[in-house]
Amino acid sequence: TTKRAFIKGYYDPDELFKTISKKLAKEEDRVKMFGVIAHELDEQMQFERIATLVAIRDKEKITNYVLVEKDKKKTIIDKKLALDNLVIQALSKQVKPFYLKNTQPEVQKFFTAYQYPLKETFFLPFVSADGLEGMIILGERSCGKVLKEQEFEIFNTIISYSSALLYKYTSYEKLQKQL
After folding, report:
1. SS3 breakdown of the chain: % helix, strand, coil, rounded to 5?
2. CA spacing 20 to 30 A to 132: which of 44, 52, 160, 161?
3. pTM of the model
């Protein structure tokens, strides 16, 4: 079942990056930053499922993570995960994009329990010096097309750009929490 009435199999990579860049430049909230990236990837590339995993911080360090998946009408998943959670420990070791099928059994079990397809689910990790800042979790594309090298290049560009913004924002965020 697809979640869209009209499915397009194409998108403009330059427009995708331009839109994400413009929207992220205005954003000052970590959770919303990941939401912007997920929303734009979904709008342009059309995924059946898309979720965000975002690091939550106190003054100095990451304290836990929140996994959120929203549909247009409702929140499907909103789960807090502790740093000692086996899934978080496994995901924290990932620094490059990867497929669910290529990860640890506990991660596979966790996401397949939420009906994420083992073979098509793809993860985009955003890592800083402090560790895993967050991830975008992409289900299968609505058009049924498999991700190709061009998409991997686009994802890496988005990750690099966004990670630089997150690094800058994290310093600002730490300063704000100290005041």
Report:
1. 45, 25, 30
2. 44
3. 0.86
